Amino acid sequence: MTRWPLPEPMKRALALAAEAAEAGEVPVGAVVVKDGKVIGEGRNAPRATHDPTAHAEIAAIRAAARALGDERLAGCELFVTLEPCAMCAGAIVHARIARVTYGAPDPKGGAVAHGARVFDQPGCLHRPEVVSGIGEGEAGELLREFFRERR
To answer: CA-based, 20 to 30 A from 151: which of 70, 96, 105, 142?
Structure first.
């Protein structure tokens, strides 16, 4: 589906998204990288944990913060299979993540290129670099298949 090789962190995020789908969760996976090394990862788990904040990005950010022993993730990159929502974009801002790379756009719930456009707001305290479309085909297919099976 992709015209070029996917970065390893996005491949891992896609694998985590597939695990989420197998567990009955919306298939989203996320990985935080610093200096080329994975320091945090997560997948969607709101249903299993009965926690509406248990998004893949939040899990990956929490794991990375624990690994670094710091709530600031300066110099880190977040790879996520779906455009982050407003909650996750806010967490990205507060964590001071340097770069966000996401796969599929989310016209309904996304808040980076759609909706609230959190990083573009005048009061935004930190604006990460954003790269979109990396693994979009693969992430989109996981989402389409997941929702097709439920309709």
So the answer is: 105
How far apart are alpha carbons 85 and 118 in whole angstroms? 9
Residues marked active site are found at 57
Residue 99: strand pairing partners: 77, 129
pLDDT, tens digit (0-9, with 9 covering 90-100), for 2-37: 567 999 999 999 999 999 999 999 999 999 999 999
Distance CA 128, CA 67 (A): 21
Show the beta-strand stretches assigned E in 18-112. Answer: 29-34, 37-43, 76-82, 99-104
Structure tokens given for 26: 């919306």
Q: In angstroms, how far is the first alpha carbon of the chain from the final one? A: 25
pTM for this model (two decimals): 0.95
